[in-house]
Amino acid sequence: MCIKYGIVSLITSNLLLYSHMLFNDVIGQEEVKKHLIEIAQSGTVPHAQLFLSYPGSGGLALALAFAQYLNCENKTHHDSCGTCSACVKAQKMIHPDIHYTYPIIAKKPSPHPSLSTDYIQEWRNEIIKNPYINELEWLQAIGAENKQGNITADEARAIIKGLNLTAFESTYKIHIIWMAEALAKEGNILLKLLEEPPNNTVLILIAENQEEILPTIISRCQLVKINKLQDDELAQGLLKKGVPQSNTQHIAYLSDGNYNEALKLIDSETDVDTRRLTQWLDFSINMKSGELLKWSEENGKIGRENLKVFLEYTTHIFREALLILHIKQYAARLSKEELNLAHRINKFLTHQKLESLLELINKKHYEIERNVSPKMVLMDMSLLLHKIIRGK
Ligand SMILES: [Zn+2]
Q1: The dihedral of CA 169, 172, 178, 183: what is its sign?
Q2: From ligand 1's centre to the CA of 88, what distance in Å?
Q3: How much distance in Å is there from the Cα of 241 to the middle of ligand 1?
Q4: Contact 259, 29 (CB under 8 A)
Q5: 35, 76, 111, 331 - which has most CB atoms within 10 Å?
Q6: What kind of fold does domain 258-390 have according to CATH?
Q7: Residue 259's pLDDT band (boundaries 50, 70, 90)?
Q8: pTM for the complete prediction?
Q9: 330-to-65, 169, 270, 344 alpha-carbon distances in Å
């Protein structure tokens, strides 16, 4: 499946902000969570694990949740507590016993070789915002432009040094290596550590391409496979983040098991439908029949599934408009653009007209499902909308 985007869209809207990383905050992956909780509970945590993760399926999110769980002071059989001092520090990514390595570019000018810790502030910012980020987005965030990110020999030696220190305040000293492919041959430096790990140390490597990891490393790690997310898991995750239900299934379908792609699609999908709805209302209110005909023809070609999503989206906007009309200080779940649209709708539609419209859209949704020609459905719908607006 090919999905194209222009610019990396803004996914920093409040509704998508992660404030913590419990297992419960990780989308789907119930079997992996169960496995990780079991090994933590039984006290048989492997010294080295390789999380082999399908892109955007949550390898890093699971590693963060696991690290937090291992050191939580009040864990249950299901999750970390989220409130003990260890959890609070893990969530802010400042726990003294949880360390991170990730691909970086050399910082210039610098008196010493660049290490991951040189970018720790950027790392915390980006990962707290989106633990499903991909390597390219991360490198863009640190201004790498078209430079390739590396995990250097110096970094590998720093990992060994750090893990050989005693844990400061927790049972486990944990080091997470994200995008371990970037180690390349420097992975050899870690072999001794993998063979003779200090007590209570946990090394978690996260990678997407098994063939780019040295076989000698793979053979010394316990493998945890993290498969692509199911559409239903993705849709549930999007719903939990405040995406209207009418959009979740469609976005999940388009993003093909990759939550990071799904996050990017949220804005672009909504934009397209917002534009579509704005046009439809404009042409109908002003009864521009030529334009309406063209609109019905063009949008009749977008495919039944997309059309259903559009109708569900329209219902969502009309419902929100109705609530704005009736509830004082109603906190609408709308973007700024959508909010303007809702206010415009309320200028020409009374409660009763809105109710009739919702009924009409519901009927048309059913017709699309029953394989009536999309163009016919849209033309009929436009005509009826005009009648409703005019109060006929
Ligand atoms: Zn806790």
Answers
A1: positive
A2: 7
A3: 23
A4: no
A5: 35
A6: Zinc Finger, Delta Prime; domain 3 (1.20.272)
A7: very high
A8: 0.70
A9: 35, 46, 21, 16
Pick from 274, 276, 283: nearest CA to 385: 283
Q: How many CA atoms lie within 13 A of 75 on its CB side?
A: 21
Distance CA(60)–CA(64), nearest Å, equals: 6
Give 71 Cα–ligand 1 centroid separation in angstroms. Answer: 7
Task: Write the CATH number of the domain with boundaries 14-228.
Answer: 3.40.50.300
**Centre of ligand 1 from the C-alpha of residue 37, in Å:** 14
Q: For the chain, which residues make up each domain, given as ranges?
A: 14-228, 258-390
Q: With bands split at pLDDT 50, 70 and 90, how would you rate the model's confidence at 9?
A: very low
Banded model confidence at residue 20, pLDDT cuts 50, 70, 90: low
Provide mean pLDDT across the span 205-227: 96
What's the 12 CA to ligand 1 centre distance in angstroms? Answer: 26
Phi, psi dihedrals of residue 173, rounded to the nearest 5°: -105, 120
Identify residues whose C-beta is under 5 A from ligand 1, the ion.
Answer: 72, 80-81, 84, 87
Q: What is the mean pLDDT of residues 191-206?
A: 94
Q: Please tell me the distance between residue 85's alpha carbon and the centre of ligand 1 in angstroms.
A: 7
Q: What confidence tens digit (pLDDT) does each residue in 97-122 have?
A: 999 999 999 988 888 999 999 999 99
Q: Say how many Å lie between the CA of residue 125 and the centre of ligand 1.
A: 21
